[in-house]
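Journal club prep — side note

Before the paper discussion, L.F. wants everyone to see what a predicted structure for a comparable chain looks like in token form. Sequence:
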Amino acid sequence: MTERETALIGEFKGKLDKLIILYLRVKKEKQLLVEEHTQMKEQIKLLTLKNDELVRQTEDLKFAKSLLGADDDSHGAKLKLNRLVREIDNCIALLNK
């Protein structure tokens, strides 16, 4: 081999080593991002469940408040009561089948 060929091979090895180092760095970063993505998905799931629970609690509080005597909300309370009675009737009908 000539000196020029040896120099080219040495340069190629150096660039290949740098490329391998960059690849390993990107691979590690990707793994960290995948883990972070998984954690974020889990956090979104938990927050969604919490939000649903808070919405349900808010509706229950509004209903309870309307039953306690707020005249302007009595119509809403009657509608909710009627809906609950229909749901109970449907459940009873399903149980009787």
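L.F.'s comment for the group: The chain has a mean pLDDT of 89. Keep this in mind when we get to the figures.
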